[in-house]
Amino acid sequence: MVTSVKYAITISETQSRRALQQAVRSQGQVILEPRQQPDRSLLGFVTSGDDDVLVVELTGGSRPWLVDLVGRHVGVQLYLEERYLFDSKVLAGPSWHDAEQLTLECPRTLQVIQRRRFWRAQLAPSSSVTIRWTHAGRAQVAKGPLLNVSAEGLACKLESGAAQLIAAGIPLVCEFRLPDTHASYRFRAVVRNSAPASDDACIVGMEFDIAPEDADGAAAQQALRDALYRPRPESAEVPAP
Q1: Which of 117, 148, 173, 200 is deepest in the core (most CB within 10 A)?
Q2: 0.85 surpassed by pTM
Q3: SS3 state at 30
Q4: In this predicted model, what pLDDT tens digit does every residue of 68-91 receive, in sequence order?
Q5: Are 116 and 132 spatial neighbours (Cβ–Cβ below 8 Å)?
Q6: Does residue 12 share a domain with residue 109?
Q7: How far apart are CA 142 and CA 135, in angstroms?
Q8: Are residues 18 and 85 in the same domain?
Q9: Tens digit of pLDDT for each residue in 124-159?
Q10: Which residue range is the domain that position 178 belongs to?
Q11: Is residue 118 situated within a structural domain?
Q12: Model confidence at 108, in pLDDT bands (50, 70, 90)?
């Protein structure tokens, strides 16, 4: 089962099955967190599934170490209208379609995060990201809730109109701030996937694009990694607004 998370509740098998079916239909965004490897979070989306397995397509380039995940357990965060958690086992992969894919064991039940209360280690409900890019020669800007962030990329929710202007692979700049810190982060990034959500919005996954010669970008990425993965006291929580 998923490691206990404060303010998460376990839903029934029927509710869980419906949520997973919706994830397949809408290509729900997922974050995979290999056990004992928090610095190797993987961003992707659900491409297919049934009562036994889920197939997740990963964003980003090839990762030679993915083969080591077969047979191991991963924590999974799934983003639909709600945010869900579950543990799974990697049954097969990596395989290639248009990108690397992993086959996961389908869980029987999910946990759902209650909307108004979170671990302090998680993002506060007010966390947001600002996206800047160029479309047809004109500067564009959009702002939306920051759903999840790792040292390699982030997931956010944008209005459909803005999301449709950001084609996969185009360069952009994202800016955000983590809870409990005074530091802001600014990265060049590219969109890797986009999936419809509720309320005329899309969940957009982005990968940070840091060139080998970009010393400032590498330093910012290391600072973000340190901020994300440092130990935090269990008693700390973000109060409901």
Answers
A1: 148
A2: no
A3: strand
A4: 899 999 999 898 877 899 999 999
A5: no
A6: yes
A7: 12
A8: yes
A9: 556 889 999 998 889 999 999 888 787 888 888 898
A10: 123-229
A11: no
A12: very high
